[in-house]
Every structure is written in C-alpha cells, then in structure tokens.
TrEMBL record:
Annotated cofactor note: Binds 1 potassium ion per subunit.
Protein purpose: Catalyzes the dehydration of the S-form of NAD(P)HX at the expense of ADP, which is converted to AMP. Together with NAD(P)HX epimerase, which catalyzes the epimerization of the S- and R-forms, the enzyme allows the repair of both epimers of NAD(P)HX, a damaged form of NAD(P)H that is a result of enzymatic or heat-dependent hydration. Bifunctional enzyme that catalyzes the epimerization of the S- and R-forms of NAD(P)HX and the dehydration of the S-form of NAD(P)HX at the expense of ADP, which is converted to AMP. This allows the repair of both epimers of NAD(P)HX, a damaged form of NAD(P)H that is a result of enzymatic or heat-dependent hydration.
InterPro entries hit by this protein: CARKD, Nnr, Ribokinase-like, YjeF_N_dom, YjeF_N_dom_sf
Family, similarity comment: Belongs to the NnrE/AIBP family.
Name under which the protein is recorded: Bifunctional NAD(P)H-hydrate repair enzyme
Residue positions binding AMP: K407, D408, H409, H410, T411, G436
Gene3D superfamilies: 3.40.1190.20, YjeF N-terminal domain
Organism taxonomic ancestry: Bacteria, Pseudomonadati, Bacteroidota, Flavobacteriia, Flavobacteriales
Length: 507
C-alpha cells in the first residue's frame, strides 16, 4: 500500500470525484457512511456519542457521521464553533444537522461544564489532513480538556494536531485517540513512534478512492500489506529437494550467549532453508546439537568465534551473541575483506562495524543490516527523532548500497534506491531480548532460499511480526517469548497458503 502526502491525498480525492462523477459532498457521505458502519459494528451497545467538529471537511465528516448515527437511534451531541467559516461540504452537513430537531449543537466552551455520560464516546472531527500549523488558543484548550476525559476517544481520519507526513513540535497539542478511522491508506505520521502514539489502533476505511490514481501516482514510501507479501511469497515446489532451498549459516555466539544462536538457528530452520549450519564456538557444541538437531555444527573457536571457516555457497547471518572480543573482531573484518556475497548482519557484528566508519565500507553490496535504534545511532550517529533517523538511513542505504532493516514498532526496510517499506505486523510483546536473533535467522533463511535481498528483508520483517502477533494471541504480549514467536512461524506459512495466496495470485 502506497503512502501519500496530504497534497497527494487531496489530489486523490479530486481525481476520484472527477472519474466517478461525484461531488465533494458525495465523497464525504461515503466516508461518513464507512465510519458510521464501523461505529455500529464495534459499539452497538454504547449509544452515546459526543462529536467535535471543526470548520474544514474533517468537521464535515463529523456532522455527517452525527446525522447517520442519530438516524440509527444513537444519542448524539455535537460541539462546534458556530462563528467559524465552514468549507462548502461542511456547511451543508452542518445545516442538515441543524435541521434535525433532536440533534443539538453546542459551543466548544460548553464542553467544560457538560456532564458526559460515563460511556459516551468522544469523536474528534476537528482537524484532518488539512491542518497546516500547530494548534493554539481555544482549540488547544479544547483538545487538552478532551484528552483529560476518561472516555473512549476516536479520531476521524487523523488525530487533530498531527500532520499526515511530518514530525510534530516538542510541545504540540494533539488529540490522543484510542482508535483512528483513517480513509483509504496509512499516513506516514501514523507509523513513527513520536506521532503514532496519538493514533491508538489504526483502522483503514476503504472509501473506494480511484485505483487508477493509486497505481499511477508515484510514492517511494509503502506499507507492507498482504498484497505485497502475496506477490513475494514463493510456495514450495513438490518436486524439490533440500538443495532447492539453499544453505544458511548462522555465525553467532560466545561463552554465555549461546541462547542467541539457538534462537537464530531455530528461526532459520523454521523459515525453510534446505540446509542450515551453525558456526559457533565449541563451548556451545552440546547445547546447539541438542536444541537444534537439524542444523550442522562448525567450530569457530573455543569460547568465541575467531575463525570464519564457512560452508561453501552458503548464505550467512552474522551477529547474535557474537561478542566483540578483539580476536572475533579481527577475524570478522578479515573475512569481510574476502566476502563478495550479500550477508545479513545484526547485533555484535554491527557493534564491531560501528567502531570505525571505514569498516562500513567492507559490507558487501546488497547486504541486509538489521539495527535497532541504538545500534543504528552507534553505526551512523545520533538523530533528533525517528523522521530524521529514517532520512539518514535512506542516505546510508544509498551510499553503502545496502538494505537497512531499521527495527522499531513499525520496522522500516530501506532500499539502496531510496524506497521505504513500513512493516505493520508485530506488537510490544516482541520487545524482549531474543526477538532480533529470530529476525536474523528468518531473513538469512529466506535469502538462502533465493529470495532477493529486498524480498528477504520485506518478507522477513513481515513474517517475524506476524508470528509475533500469533504468539501474542496465544500467550499474551507479556508472557510470549521469542521462542513462542519462532514456534508460530509454521502457522504464518499456513495462513499465507490459505488466506493470502488465493487472494493475491493471478496464476
Ligand atoms: N471531499 C473530500 O475532499 C473529502 C475529505 N475528507 C475529509 O476532509 C479532511 C480534509 O479536509 P480539509 O482539507 O478541509 O482540512 P481540515 O483538516 O478538515 O481543516 C482544515 C481547516 O482548518 C483550518 N486550519 C488548519 N490548521 C489550523 C490550525 N492549526 N488552527 C486552526 N485552524 C486551522 C484551515 O483553515 P485556514 O485557517 O488555514 O484557512 C481549514 O479551514 C480529511 O482529513 C477527511 O477527514 C473525507 O471526507 C473524504 C472526502
Ligand atoms: K480528526
């Protein structure tokens, strides 16, 4: 799914109106119906809504939703500033509400003294993607007041105070929603931690904006959806053998950190590589042979990996629990000098590379590195916020001609040609030591199976998150472990074959 800027979304709305032969008012009605339907489906038992409407088309949506919910028998109260100059469509919808005798429109100021019923849902239709400056004055007071209410809060299109594609100022006032019903596609600000925190759960509402515009309009930022995954995933060929699915080698571990090797290896095995090898120190030999009997062990030293004797033609994932011992560092750097094929690099291998900017030049072209924000900062320097971090990652991915999998709540896969793929699977239950080791194993395994580096990174990030979601469903976010995530990889492949492929395959 492409991510568009607010200007592009406006063009998309206009293109749709022209090509469908409908007015702005009709498109607004479509959007409002879609939201009203969601409210009925999800909150049928709650019959009270307080809807706050601004002067633009977002406010227009609010008025139209109020009318639709009222007509369905819900109790609705509207708050608006009657002195504001409404957009054309908002004015028409405001008038339609005024004409309904049971639908009261109160002033914003009245909200302070209004007694909201305990189960009233607060709906934010103050500002949408037309916000063009920080919120101040009476709107800021109103939003602060609403944020302090202990009620369920839902934003229409985007929480008021957020711009679709920009970072917010330090002291910005933003409506803090539990859920956001956004039209047609994700907005960039919903995917970054500093701004996404205001959105709650995102529900993308399909309002049938033009498919033609969507395919023609360029965007180098995308959300990894199931359509993309359906196109990447290659189901296994029944007439195949273990040689068909490549050789993956996990290069990892040091004394006391053999668990990281187990996790990375198991994740690689579960992701389908034909042959899986482990290059680890001897101290982990028994643990690894017992916990990962399907993998073959190659000794890389006594307590650390100091010898990169790699199985021929195998794809390497390097880093988990590797340690940064000077001998490990020396042999890793020497190995890199001879290495031409793309690698997957994480954790301590990244920490070694961060010691000297010249080391970065040793990374083979088209390799995939998987830093978390702290590792990223060690490698490339600090940035002010996640938007700036992404910009720097784009610069570095291009300069080094590598793929960067920037781990975050919405992990970003950045390609050497400046595209960004945001992952929307995964959850906070994965914020635990060991999750990253599993990701390295998954991506290495996919790369070994001849997925291109780009597809291995995108598919790997998605698969990892989806397995995490399945694990959270079964064990809770708190109790789920990275090993539970690995155990769910099989269910994700089953899901892909049953649910995703039939929808997305043309052949
Ligand atoms: N038919 C369609 O196109 C459809 C559109 N849809 C909906 O429309 C939304 C976009 O609507 P929009 O463009 O009217 O912008 P919106 O955010 O409602 O308000 C902008 C107004 O606020 C003002 N303003 C800006 N910043 C301000 C500030 N800080 N403090 C105070 N005022 C500020 C600005 O006026 P200004 O003061 O800049 O002259 C302007 O009056 C979109 O998110 C979706 O919900 C859907 O219904 C689908 C169909
Ligand atoms: K809003």
């Amino acid at each position: 799914m492409k991510i568009f800027t607010s200007d592009q979304i406006k063009k998309w709305d206009e293109f749709t109106m022209r090509s469908n032969g409908i007015s702005s008012l009709e498109l607004m009605e479509r959007a409002a119906h879609s939201c009203a339907k969601w409210f009925v489906q999800n909150y049928f038992e709650i019959n009270s809504f307080a809807i706050f409407c601004g002067a633009g088309n977002n406010g227009g949506d609010g008025f139209a939703i109020a009318r639709l919910l009222y007509k369905k028998g819900f109790e609705v109260i509207l708050f608006a500033d009657e002195s504001q100059v409404y957009s054309e469509s908002a004015a028409i919808n405001q008038k339609k509400c005024k004409d309904i005798s049971g639908l009261e429109i109160l002033k914003f100021e009245n909200a302070n003294n209004f007694i909201f019923k305990e189960n009233t849902i607060i709906v934010d239709a103050l500002f949408g993607i037309g916000l063009n400056r920080p919120i101040q004055g009476k709107f800021a007071h109103l939003i602060q007041f609403l944020n302090d209410l202990n009620h369920l809060k839902i934003s229409i299109d985007i929480p008021s105070g957020l711009m679709a594609d920009e970072m917010i100022a330090d002291q910005a006032v933003v409506f803090k929603a539990n859920d956001t019903l956004t039209f047609q596609s994700w907005k960039k600000s919903m995917l970054h931690p500093e701004t996404g925190i205001y959105c709650g759960n995102i529900h993308v509402r399909d309002i049938s904006l033009s498919e033609e515009f969507n395919s023609l309009e360029p965007s180098n930022e995308l959300v990894i959806d199931e359509k993309i995954i359906g196109e990447i995933y290659q189901p296994r060929n029944e007439f195949s053998h273990k040689g068909t699915y490549g050789k993956a080698t996990v290069v990892a571990g040091s004394y006391g950190k053999i668990g990281a090797v187990v996790l990375a290896t198991k994740a690689a095995l579960k992701s389908g590589s034909g042959l899986t090898f482990i290059l680890a120190p001897k101290c982990g030999y028994e643990i690894l042979q017992i916990s990962c009997p399907e993998a073959m062990f190659i000794s890389g030293g006594e307590n650390e990996v100091v010898n990169f004797s790699i199985e021929e033609n195998s794809t390497l994932g390097i880093g988990p629990g590797l340690g940064t011992h000077s001998d490990t560092e020396k042999s890793f750097l020497n190995f890199l000098k001879t290495c031409k094929n793309p690698l997957v690099i994480d954790a301590d291998a990244l920490n070694i590379l961060s010691k000297n900017p010249d080391y970065l030049k040793l990374i083979p072209k088209s390799s995939i590195i998987t830093p978390h924000p702290k590792e990223f900062a060690r490698l490339f320097g600090p940035t002010e916020n996640s938007f700036a971090r992404l910009d720097l990652a784009r610069e570095k991915a291009h300069e080094l001609q590598i793929y960067i999998v920037l781990k975050d709540h919405h992990t970003q896969v950045i390609t050497p040609d400046n595209r960004v793929f945001y992952n929307i699977t995964g959850n906070s239950g994965m914020a635990k030591g060991g999750s990253g080791d599993a990701l390295l194993g998954i991506i290495t395994s996919l790369l070994a199976q001849s997925y291109s580096p780009e597809n291995a990174a995108i598919f790997g990030a998605w698969l990892h998150g989806k397995a995490g979601d399945f694990a959270a469903e079964e064990f809770s976010k708190e109790a789920m472990l990275p090993s539970d995530l690995i155990d769910q990889i099989g269910n994700v492949f089953k899901y892909l074959n049953k649910k995703v492929l039939p929808k997305n395959r043309k052949d």
